[in-house]
């Protein structure tokens, strides 16, 4: 079974992704509402993939990514950036984000992105 950590502060969006991923019986989803909570889960769970919102209440996704990259236990975990801000897309040239998905999330794009990293 693959594990995915979704770090997203918006409960409605987390719920949507939860419902989408429940269709996949081979995925166990962990959720965090803040960057700090997400980092704690990333270190303890060691997920196979991280979906990371860029705009979090306590730190931005780039900061979370840098902390993940600087830790030997999490540096190799692929991270997909998710954002509703199209301006941010141009700023996602930071090494470490393997992919960018815009909000609103398109189900087929989410599945394709996940499949490309888990298969």
Question: Key terms for this structure?
Answer:
alpha/beta, Rossmann fold, 119 residues, five-stranded parallel β-sheet
Q: By CATH's scheme, which homologous superfamily applies?
A: Response regulator
CATH architecture: 3-Layer(aba) Sandwich
Distance between the termini: 11 Å
Share of β-strand residues? 15-25%
Helix proportion: 40-55%
Average pLDDT confidence is: 91
What is the topology, as strand order, of the major beta sheet? 2-1-3-4-5
Count of individual helical segments: 5
Structural overview:
A five-stranded parallel sheet has the order 2-1-3-4-5, with helices on both faces. The chain has helices at residues 11-21, 35-45, 61-69, 86-91, 107-118; strands at 2-7, 27-32, 49-53, 79-83, 97-102. The chain is built from five helices and five strands. By secondary structure, the chain is α/β, with parallel strands linked by helices. Helices cover 41% and strands 24% of the residues. The longest helix has 12 residues, at 107-118. The protein is globular, with a radius of gyration of 13 Å. It starts with a strand and ends with a helix. Helix 2 runs parallel beside helix 3 (61-69).
Task: Tell me the layout of helices and strands.
Layout: E1 2-7, H1 11-21, E2 27-32, H2 35-45, E3 49-53, H3 61-69, E4 79-83, H4 86-91, E5 97-102, H5 107-118
Parallel strand pairs: 1-2, 1-3, 3-4, 4-5
In short:
By secondary structure, the chain is of the alpha/beta class. The protein is built from five helices and five strands.
């Amino acid at each position: 079974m693959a594990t995915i950590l979704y770090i997203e502060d918006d409960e409605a969006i987390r719920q949507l992704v939860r419902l989408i991923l429940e269709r996949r019986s081979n995925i166990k989803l962990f959720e965090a509402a803040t960057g700090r909570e997400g980092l704690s889960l990333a270190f303890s769970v060691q997920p196979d993939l991280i979906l990371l919102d860029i705009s979090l209440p306590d730190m931005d996704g780039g900061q979370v990514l840098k902390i993940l990259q600087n830790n030997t236990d999490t540096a190799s975990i692929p991270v997909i950036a998710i954002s509703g801000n199209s301006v941010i897309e141009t700023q996602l040239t930071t090494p470490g984000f393997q992919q960018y998905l815009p909000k609103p999330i398109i189900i087929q794009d989410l599945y394709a992105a996940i499949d490309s990293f888990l298969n």
